[in-house]
Design brief:
Layout: E1 2-5, H1 14-31, E2 54-60, E3 63-72, H2 78-81, E4 97-105, H3 118-134, E5 138-143, H4 147-153, E6 157-160, E7 165-167, E8 170-178, H5 181-191, E9 198-200
Parallel strand pairs: 1-9, 4-5
Antiparallel strand pairs: 1-2, 2-3, 3-4, 5-8, 6-8, 7-8
């Protein structure tokens, strides 16, 4: 299930976060060719992995099989500071808008064709569950354009911010994706399970904006 990790509870998740950083490196550096992120220790850690980041970990039998990071748009984030060229106009900013980055799933647990994997479904469900309880209703995403239709089918309302451009080995487009209760219902319908996917969280994530 999904664990939410911030600076508040990070000490209890040291080993799992180390797994997450290595999974990130394996996916984004070794597979996708984002060589600017390459580190000798095999850990993908950047300037945004600070006290303002919200990490979401899918953990099964002590192993991190899926990961994603959320960053508040009111503070520096990937689109504002690294990939600004992907946004043709003004940056989307507001307390209700967070950036979804570093989504990655371990080999063997990934999507098959158009089918969203159980791990992928739970990670997306965690964003919507957390967002609905935290006053967040929109996410910024830098992604392969192939995801556009999939997000619409999952009942996200997607708006491109620019045209696709090459990042590493991939074409990447920046979008905003708004969601609401209907999005969560759709994800649960596809999963065949009405239960919440978040099983552990810090007391509050609102202080990440403080």
């Amino acid at each position: 299930m999904i664990h939410l990790v911030t600076a508040e509870n990070a000490a209890a998740y040291h080993e799992l976060m180390e797994q997450a950083f290595r999974l990130r490196h394996a996916v984004f550096v070794d597979e996708l060719g984002w060589h600017d992120l390459k580190r000798e220790d095999g850990r993908d850690v950047d300037q945004f992995d600070d006290g303002r980041a919200l990490h979401m970990l899918y953990v099964e039998n002590g192993r991190v099989l899926g990961y994603q990071r959320m960053l508040p748009s009111l503070r520096p984030h990937l689109l504002s500071d690294v990939l600004r060229h992907l946004c043709d106009g003004d940056l989307p900013v507001g307390p209700q808008i967070w950036e979804w980055t570093r989504y990655c799933v371990a080999p063997g647990c990934r999507d098959r064709g158009r089918m969203l994997s159980p791990v992928g479904n739970m990670l997306l469900s965690a964003i919507v569950e957390w967002g609905l309880e935290s006053g967040v209703s929109e996410i910024i995403i830098e992604m392969n354009p192939i995801w556009l239709l999939r997000l619409v089918q999952l009942h996200f309302r997607v708006t491109p911010l620019g045209i696709p451009q090459k990042v590493g080995k991939d074409d990447v487009v920046a979008v905003t994706a708004a969601f609401d209760r209907r999005t969560l219902n759709r994800l649960r319908e596809m999963r065949g399970d009405e239960r919440e996917v978040i099983v552990s969280r810090p007391i509050s994530t609102r202080r990440l904006l403080a």
